[in-house]
TrEMBL record:
InterPro entries per UniProt: AhpD-like
Listed SUPFAM superfamilies: AhpD-like
Taxonomic source organism: Actinomycetospora cinnamomea
One MF term in the entry's GO annotations: peroxidase activity
Name of the protein described by the UniProt record: Alkylhydroperoxidase family enzyme
Gene3D superfamilies: AhpD-like
Entry keyword Oxidoreductase: yes
C-alpha cells in the first residue's frame, strides 16, 4: 500500500485526467508512480515530458540490452513496481519473459545463458547501482568498445534513471500493480 494517497482521476484536474486516460490506454491502468507524482503538478509534468523524451531518444542500444539493464537495476534496488512494469514492456515487445526473469538472479552477470554483451550490461548495472558505485576503468573501456560512446552514455543514463525511479517508488511504498500478469499468454496445453 502506498505511503501517501494516490491522486484519483476526479482530483487530477482536466489535464491530469487527460494524462491518466492516455496512460490507461497505453498501459491498461494508470501507473501508481504517475498518480503519486500528481500531488506536485510541476514535477508530474516534468517527469512525464522527461520520460517521453528519454523513450524517444534512447535508441542507440538494442531494446533487449536497454531493458535488461533497467530490469537488473530494479531488481538490485528491490522495486517490485519497476520489475512488474519492466516485465510488461518486455513481454509486449514479444521477448522471452524467462530470459528477462533470469536477469534477477544473483549470478546473472556470469550466466552463460546470456550473451557476452548482455553479461557486460548486467554487470555494469550492478556496478552503477552498488552503494557506493563500483564501476571501474576497465569495465567502462570494455563497454565503450562494445557499445560506442553514445551506447555507453545511453546505458549509464538508463541505469541512473532507473535508480531514481526505483528509489522514488520504494520510498513512497509503491509496489507491483499487476502489469506483467495482464500480459500473460495462456500456455498451450
Amino acid at each position: 500500500m502506498a505511503r501517501i494517497p494516490l491522486v484519483a482521476p476526479r482530483d487530477a484536474g482536466l489535464l491530469g485526467r487527460l494524462a491518466y486516460r492516455y496512460a490507461r490506454r497505453r498501459f491498461g491502468d494508470v501507473p501508481e508512480p504517475f498518480a503519486a507524482l500528481r500531488h506536485h503538478p510541476g514535477l508530474f509534468w516534468s517527469s512525464a515530458v522527461a520520460e517521453s523524451l528519454v523513450e524517444r531518444a534512447a535508441t542507440v542500444l538494442p531494446a533487449r540490452l536497454r531493458d535488461l539493464a533497467v530490469y537488473r537495476t530494479a531488481t538490485r534496488v528491490g522495486c517490485s513496481w519497476c520489475v512488474d512494469f519492466g516485465e510488461m514492456l518486455w513481454i509486449r515487445r514479444g521477448l522471452d519473459a524467462d530470459h528477462l526473469r533470469r536477469a534477477a538472479a544473483d549470478d546473472a552477470p556470469d550466466d552463460p545463458g546470456f550473451d557476452a554483451d548482455e553479461r557486460a550490461v548486467l554487470a555494469y548495472a550492478d556496478a552503477v547501482t552498488a552503494q557506493p558505485p563500483t564501476v571501474g576503468d576497465a569495465q567502462v573501456a570494455d563497454l565503450d568498445a562494445r557499445l560506442g560512446h553514445a551506447g555507453l552514455v545511453e546505458l549509464t543514463h538508463l541505469v541512473a534513471l532507473e535508480n531514481q525511479r526505483a528509489r522514488f517508488n520504494a520510498a513512497l511504498g509503491l509496489h507491483a500493480q499487476g502489469f506483467a500478469a495482464s500480459c500473460a499468454v495462456p500456455s498451450r496445453g
